[in-house]
Design goal:
The protein is α/β, with parallel strands linked by helices and 558 residues long. The chain is built from 22 helices and ten strands.
Length: 558
């Protein structure tokens, strides 16, 4: 890869990012709305606070309250960066950091690909895959953690090649902390970093010892001084970045981690994350749902996550080549592919270790998001967490393609270079059209534009014009499906629609002084469907009217 290659890739990636981002006038969904809104709070000097409440796990006394009790702060900080730099609080400014990261992502991916194969053509193909984004394309440029996780993941695997042990350990510790500051499940990357260092230390120190536990014999690296130093440096650099946030949490919540975060373990439906009051879920309520239901939930999550693997992470057409590329590094007879590459890539121990750690990290994420947190995993957490592996998958796909082409050319006695050229270009074109298809459905098409203009911030802006006419309650709090979006549309305090019935609504209204309830057809919980279907028949509520099929109620209070 030449300097000119890098410049061209960066500016092409930037052009692609700006083109797609220009169609995104609002964040688009709750997660992105949340990070934009909390970034706005930072820019306006209000610190880590929320003038809204999207779940009730932290059980705040009133609004505003301390932010990021569930989600982590780094994405909000990136959202704030663009607004700080431009001194402009519009969404386009909040996108700046994410657009720049997305322009660097193909460079990182190309560097990772080149570290495996030392081939310019494979590196450029990998960069094109990262530039297009596939199933992730619509989400890379909004205020969400996808592109941050991808960049961190690419840097993580590149850092495993740093020769100076002390520097490698420090970089891995810092990256692990940044993973954690981006997502709560990012803590697994600290464990992955420690395992990776142990494996790499084994490469540097060939001596082994045998650990015996009963009849089990395990060959482990000797605890060398270099290994111990690595562990200390990883943990120290991780602690340096993460401890200030944990101390902040302890100061405002009384606990270093998310309040009632253990409730996520015992969900029997996704909507229970919005339960009020918090703290009603436990292992007993989870077990009471029945073993059959518990198993069915995990089978459902497995199906959903497999779809994410095929469509989003594998990009449909890339998945077979990602698998072939990964398998190449573990195949004992990889020399049978002699002539495909100038050297046998699988002979490199560091290549094997990096691919192994990637597969291990992905499997760990998959198991956690399927078996332990099935509802969160199937509703987007697996796609978010798995994004860290995308640079590695995009780097392996061209290797897998060349392995396949080499095998086919050998089998059918074809000219290798000619077949390579044809299949490489065909795969890029197919992936381009698949990416455009995803973007068309979710961003560019008339139906996508109509949907974006009829939901979220645009919808809430229309509703706000309606309910703000009454001066007596013009600043009253609302209960709504997407509180961050309503705050962004109006500046009004907003509460999440709870998992419950009308009595739950009234209890929340009493505690937080809410006067309006907004029910949207696609987001009405089961306990409130009777209210939505018969809006005039509930005496504590006065039906005020509809805006784009969203029904607005005034909560009457004595």
């Amino acid at each position: 890869m030449t300097y000119r290659d890098n410049i061209i890739i960066f500016f092409l990636s930037l052009a692609v990012a700006l083109s797609i981002a220009s169609f995104q006038s609002t964040p688009g969904y709750l997660d992105a709305d949340y990070y934009y809104a909390t970034g706005l709070q930072l820019v306006e000097g209000k610190g880590f606070t929320e003038p809204f409440l999207w779940n009730y796990l932290s059980d705040p006394v009133a609004l505003p309250h301390p932010s990021h009790s569930y989600w982590m702060p780094l994405t909000s900080i990136f959202s704030a960066l663009g607004m700080w730099i431009t001194r402009d609080i519009r969404f386009a400014s909040a996108q700046i950091a994410f657009i720049l990261l997305s322009a660097f992502l193909p460079l990182i991916t190309a560097k990772l690909a080149f570290s495996f194969s030392k081939r310019r053509d494979l590196s450029i193909i990998s960069a094109i895959f990262a530039m297009l984004g596939g199933g992730y394309a619509p989400s890379l440029y909004t205020t969400d953690s996808f592109v941050i996780y991808m960049v961190l993941g690419g840097l993580f695997f590149l850092s495993l090649r740093v020769e100076r042990l002390w520097l490698r350990a420090i970089i891995l510790g810092v990256l692990s902390a940044l993973f954690h500051l981006t997502r709560a499940d990012g803590t697994i990357w600290l464990i992955i970093a420690l395992i990776a260092l142990l494996m790499l230390d084994k490469l540097d120190n060939k001596k082994k010892s045998v650990l015996e536990i009963g009849s089990l014999r395990m060959r482990l690296p000797r605890p060398t001084p270099s290994m111990l130093l690595s562990i200390v440096l990883v943990l120290s650099s991780y602690a340096l970045f993460i401890l200030p946030w944990l101390f902040r949490n302890y100061g405002v919540f009384g606990t270093p981690l998310a309040p009632n975060g253990d409730q996520m373990l015992w969900l029997t439906s996704y909507e229970q994350i919005f339960s009020y009051p918090a703290g009603n879920l436990s292992i007993n309520t989870w077990l009471s749902s029945g073993v059959i239901e518990i198993i069915k939930t995990r089978i459902w999550a497995l199906k959903q996550n497999l779809a994410v693997i095929i469509v989003v992470q594998g990009g449909v057409v890339l998945l077979p080549f990602i698998i072939i590329g990964a398998r190449y590094f573990f195949k004992k007879n990889s020399r049978s592919l002699q002539g495909v590459f100038s050297t046998d890539l699988a002979e490199s121990s560091i290549n094997k270790k990096i691919v192994f750690m990637g597969v291990f990290a992905w499997l760990t994420t998959f198991v956690i998001m399927t078996l332990i947190f099935p509802f969160a995993g199937a509703r987007g957490a697996f796609a978010h967490s798995g994004a860290a592996l995308q640079p590695l998958w995009w780097a392996l796909a061209p290797i897998g393609l060349y392995c396949f082409v080499g095998w086919m050319a050998k089998k059918r006695k074809l000219r290798l270079e000619k077949v390579r050229y044809f299949f490489s270009n065909a795969l890029i074109i197919i992936f381009l059209f698949l990416t455009l298809g995803v973007l068309w459905v979710r961003v560019f098409s008339a139906s996508a534009l109509i949907k974006s203009e009829g939901s979220g911030i645009p919808l809430y802006t229309e509703i706000e014009e309606m309910i703000s006419e009454d001066d007596d309650i013009s600043h009253a709090t609302v209960i709504v499906a997407n509180p961050p979006a309503y705050f962004l549309a109006s500046g009004r305090f907003a509460l999440a629609q709870p998992y419950g019935d009308i009595q739950t609504i009234l209890a929340i209204a009493e505690r937080y002084n809410a006067r309006f309830l907004i029910l949207e057809e696609d987001y009405v919980v089961d306990g409130l469907k009777t209210v939505f279907n018969a809006p005039t028949e509930w005496e504590p509520l006065t039906f005020l009217g509809e805006v784009r099929e969203a029904k607005i109620f005034l909560i009457e209070r004595e």
